Amino acid sequence: MTKLNFLIVRQYGGGIIMIDKKKLINKLKYIIILICLILSIFFLYKTFSKYESTSTSRGNIEVAFYILNEDYQSMNLSLPEFTPRNEPYVCTFSVANNKDGRRTDTRLEYDLSIRTTTNLPLTYELYLNENYNSNNATNIITSNLVEQDSDGTYFRNISTETKSFGFQTNETNTYNLVIYFPIQYRLIQYQDIIESIEVIVTSKQIVE
């Protein structure tokens, strides 16, 4: 007996429609595969977006300054768009007396300062070589002033105490800049407003 492929028969408007069973099964397989592919892409996108959001919220921004001699260096932090929230934004950067196997050959001291715009109602704290979440953590900001430049633009100037490096061993200071944007500002429109944050390191030789 010959096996029939056209076994699905149904009445439709008084007529008879015969459907190829193999073709129907193949089409269903393709549809299921397509649906699975779409769902996979969707979940991958959601997972990546969640990871990216988490990474951004933790402020994993790494900036390194290397002081091997008397110098003036500045760098703008590349920051995400700020939105009010309970958790702070944290920017991490470091200052070192060595780079690529080279180390300063004299004692150096440096001053670290931060210059920001005042477009958003942000609050700043700065911590050195410690976990900012620790109960014993010390905010090392010594001066936090809003000043007007010659063009009439207001800037916030943040200063810290002078730090020093020797020349006999490799040394690195790691800073955490903690930025608060309080949740009470969530009802105010701050979309597309950019805040500029510049870190400045000025180093010079220690003369004894």
Which terms would index this structure?
single chain; 208 residues; alpha+beta; 4-stranded mixed sheet
Q: If you had to describe this structure to a student in words, what would you say it looks like?
A:
- This protein has 208 residues and is α+β, with helices and mostly antiparallel strands.
- Helix content is 18%, strand content 41%.
- It contains 1 helix and 14 strands; from the N terminus they run E-E-H-E-E-E-E-E-E-E-E-E-E-E-E.
- Strands 4, 8, 10, 11, 12 and 14 form a 6-stranded antiparallel sheet that branches.
- It is elongated.
- It starts with 7 loop residues before the first strand and ends with a strand.
Topology:
Elements: E1 8-12, E2 15-19, H1 21-57, E3 62-66, E4 71-76, E5 89-96, E6 98-99, E7 102-103, E8 108-117, E9 123-128, E10 141-148, E11 154-160, E12 163-165, E13 172-180, E14 197-205
Parallel strand pairs: 3-5
Antiparallel strand pairs: 1-2, 4-14, 5-13, 6-7, 8-11, 8-12, 8-14, 9-13, 10-11
